[in-house]
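> @MW can you paste both from yesterday?
MW: sure, first one:
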Amino acid sequence: MIQNNNFSLLSPVTMGKYRIAACPQPLTSGRFGAQVSIASGSGSATTDRVMRFCDDFSTHDAAAHYALAQGIDWVHAKTRTH
């Protein structure tokens, strides 16, 4: 984890072809919204799925951890063999 201006930034996680990055956003209420970017591919074939979540969090870190966990869960579900 990297410290930057009172915020902790989680490093992106790579799982196979997916790069998962938490992107918390400050809300007007002073709380934080959780969102995650899940990217795959390269060059002109890059795709990036961004998911925003309804819950809000009291800290930037809490929103980041929640978003990253949700992204990891999504990749696990997407790559699970049937």
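MW: second:
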Amino acid sequence: MLVRDVMSESVLTVGPTHTIRQVAQAMRSRHVGAAVVHDPDSEGPGILTERDVLEAVAGGQDLDQELAADHLTPDAVVGMPDWDLDKAAAAMVAGGFRHLVICDGSEVVGVISVRDIVRVWSQQRSAAPA
């Protein structure tokens, strides 16, 4: 199975000047664990995850003043829609992250999470003949 078959095409995208609170609220309302940060001055997409938000909270930072640009992973590792799930999972394990931004050329076309991959592998295993 390919990444394009599993990824979420509905990507939460925010700007670098959104506050951490704004991003967290958007993530909560969309039920996602990551937001792609689009900065026209950057070479590639950034990503801000629930872990980044948690670190800001635990650090006692002002969530209404701190900006996404100051807490994101810049130039995020990206995958491609035609990768198989094993390659996407290997990239996540190697990088130590749970969300992978999927690009077709320079365009963000989706996000895939570890949960997405585990769900598919679990379904495949359940459907396999015994």
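> thanks! The helical segments are 20-30, 50-58, 85-95, 114-127.
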